[in-house]
């Protein structure tokens, strides 16, 4: 009997998420339209809308006229119903973004890190967040949480894989828990590529998709996978290492021990090196501006990098399609939009794969919609995704922390 009651409670939480996600994606909607869209009973919808309205997450935005009877009340997500922070850092740069639950950026700070030491970085992060809360007059109790991303992989919230694009000296440091203790707010930890994929699923090119692969082009190459509407992390939390797909068996050596990995041909670091930056480990916004300017000027060095990167990415996309048969592959990361579009144009047309005959209205490869702030924006979506998006496994969990 206790199990039945627990499952009923989880079902109510699942239904709330279904309603909240429906309103987020399709608003403005009336109660009747939400009922039809979700298949839930009218009384259930009425109860849930009452709870969400009382919590400040849903608001009435207008009354529609033109039909018989009393005009229906339209409902929408209340942007002021909650706020999230997105934090990304690596190689001396800290980026913090404050967004509301509708995805609007309310504040942004890009800072040079005073130190790469873990405690110093987290102290600077906590101070930046506190200053934003005061500046924007946002109460801490309205903050759903803080998303934290870093270009590395994690196991049990600790860094376990450190490549040349990750922060040195952080292995096994309890990153999430340490920042959570300093802030007194929930902290969710993710690698930058998976966070970017979640951001595209909520607010970008993946809004209407359930199964897609995301290729993240940053200082290195990462990837995020969405299967059946949920991010897939693999058996050991290390899925999406697309940068280490071998695209040339006799190619350039890679720190992972293989040769010819995708990351050796298509990263932003290599674009900067092509433009004469021999260091190119740090990717700042002025570096991205340089790449965009080089494209606008028709710089032969950048065009050569684009051609080489496109050739390698073309092979990677076909591998991904043949392995996963996604609805599409989204190409994104921190590249400026014109450069990203130029890269997509060079990758197409794609060779034959299992996805060749997919629906005509779903291209095999599309450019991401989130821009150079993708790491922090993706981080900011983590608490929203955690609180809004329905997950079937919630119906069967016995210990679930209620977030909404």
Written description of the protein model:
This protein is 40% helix and 20% strand. It is of the alpha/beta class. The chain has three domains: 2-77, Arc Repressor Mutant, subunit A; 82-194 and 378-386, ATPase, nucleotide binding domain (Nucleotidyltransferase, domain 5), CATH 3.30.420.40; 205-369, Nucleotidyltransferase, domain 5 (2-Layer Sandwich), CATH 3.30.420. The protein has a five-stranded mixed β-sheet with strand order 5-4-3-6-9, with helices on both faces. Residues 1-6 and 392-404 have low confidence and may be disordered.
Topology of this protein?
Layout lengths: L1 H25 L4 H8 L3 H13 L3 E6 L9 E5 L5 E8 L2 E8 L4 E8 L5 H19 L6 E8 L2 E3 L2 E4 L13 H9 L3 E5 H12 L8 E6 L3 E7 L2 E2 L31 H4 L1 H7 L10 H12 L3 H25 L3 E6 L3 H11 L17 E3 L6 H15 L16
């Amino acid at each position: 009997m206790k199990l039945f009651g627990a499952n009923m409670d989880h079902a109510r939480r699942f239904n709330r998420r279904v309603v909240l996600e429906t309103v987020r994606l399709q608003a403005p909607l009336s109660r009747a339209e939400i009922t039809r869209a979700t298949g839930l009973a009218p009384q259930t919808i009425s109860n849930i809308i009452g709870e969400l309205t009382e919590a400040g997450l849903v608001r009435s935005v207008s009354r529609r006229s033109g039909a018989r009877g009393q005009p229906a009340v339209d409902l929408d997500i209340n942007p002021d119903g909650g706020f999230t922070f997105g934090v990304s850092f690596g190689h001396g740069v800290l980026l913090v973004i404050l967004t509301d639950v509708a995805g609007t950026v309310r504040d942004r700070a890009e800072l040079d890190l005073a130190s790469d030491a873990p405690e110093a970085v987290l102290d600077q992060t906590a101070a930046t967040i506190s200053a934003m809360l005061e500046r924007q007059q946002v109460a801490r109790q309205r903050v759903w949480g803080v998303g934290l991303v870093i270009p590395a992989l994690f196991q049990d919230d600790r860094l376990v894989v450190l490549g040349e694009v990750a922060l040195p000296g952080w292995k096994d440091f309890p990153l999430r828990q340490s920042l959570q203790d300093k802030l007194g707010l929930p902290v969710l930890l993710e690698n930058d590529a998976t966070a970017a994929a979640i951001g595209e699923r909520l607010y970008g090119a993946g809004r209407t998709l359930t199964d897609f692969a995301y290729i993240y082009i940053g200082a290195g190459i990462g990837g995020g996978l969405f299967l059946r509407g949920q991010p897939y992390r693999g058996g050991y939390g290390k899925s999406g290492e697309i940068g280490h797909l071998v695209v040339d068996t006799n190619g350039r050596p890679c720190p992972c021990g293989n040769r010819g990995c995708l990351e050796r041909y298509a990263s932003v670091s290599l674009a900067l090196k092509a433009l004469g930056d021999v260091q190119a480990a740090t990717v700042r916004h002025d570096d991205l501006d340089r790449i965009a300017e080089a494209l606008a000027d028709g710089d032969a060095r950048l065009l050569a990098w684009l051609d080489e990167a496109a050739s390698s990415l073309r092979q990677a996309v076909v591998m991904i399609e043949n392995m996963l048969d996604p609805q599409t592959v989204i190409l994104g990361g921190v590249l400026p939009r014109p450069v990203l579009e130029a890269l997509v144009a060079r990758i197409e047309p794609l060779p034959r794969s299992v996805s060749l005959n997919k629906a005509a209205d779903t291209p095999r490869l599309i450019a991401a919609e989130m821009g150079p702030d993708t790491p922090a924006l993706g981080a900011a979506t983590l608490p929203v995704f955690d609180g809004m998006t329905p997950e079937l496994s919630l119906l069967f969990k016995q210990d679930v922390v209620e977030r909404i």
